[in-house]
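User: Need the bound-state model for guanosine-5'-diphosphate:
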Amino acid sequence: MMEKQKPVLNLHNVEFLRSAVKESDFPRDALPQIVFAGKSNVGKSSVINKLLGRKNFARVSAQPGKTIHINYFLIDRKMYLVDLPGYGYARVSKAEQQRWGALMESYFAMDLLTMGVQIVDIRHKPTRDDVTMADWFRASGKPWVVIANKLDKIKKSQLEANLAEIRQTLLLPEEVPVIPFSAEKGNGRDEMLALMFAHVGKEDIE
Ligand code: GDP
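Assistant: Bound-state model below.
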């Protein structure tokens, strides 16, 4: 029998590193940083939990938009999962919107991003804030993936049209994949993990 290959990353070995609120909080070592962004309530915490195979690791948000900080998780001491603050919460103040913008500005200016993961709702046309977030990723020049979450909430017949609308609205370059995903059911998990693993250095593969 063939020997079972060891996985590139042990997803169970995950630790919360810190909440970053300013530039000096960002880790600057050579480890890859996979960055997750999405509108409040799109299911970002649920997607992260699903990918890590955890029930409640990234907090499922009780108060959307209340936290403007970047959460760093260290996975198997080989890569960072970077959880950007949710955006687009209707009741957020102007001052908080500005803090969000300033934090994005300082994160993207440092050029720490390895791969961007933008989560949108597969049911709806992306919002203006989604378009703004897409602009940040596009301008970074780094690989970027869109997760179209809540797949379980649409009919199969709606899938193609909704994916096309997401692609058009976010002005996605051809090479940016859109992955239909359900944090509830697990669709898209393997495809997304394969993309994440592809960004961990070959020297780390045992
Ligand atoms: P966040 O604010 O983006 O972190 O969103 P949460 O992870 O807190 O999820 C917001 C709500 O959407 C919660 O009630 C989740 O249970 C629900 N949710 C998240 N992902 C999915 C999904 O794929 N399918 C369904 N049906 N519900 C989801």
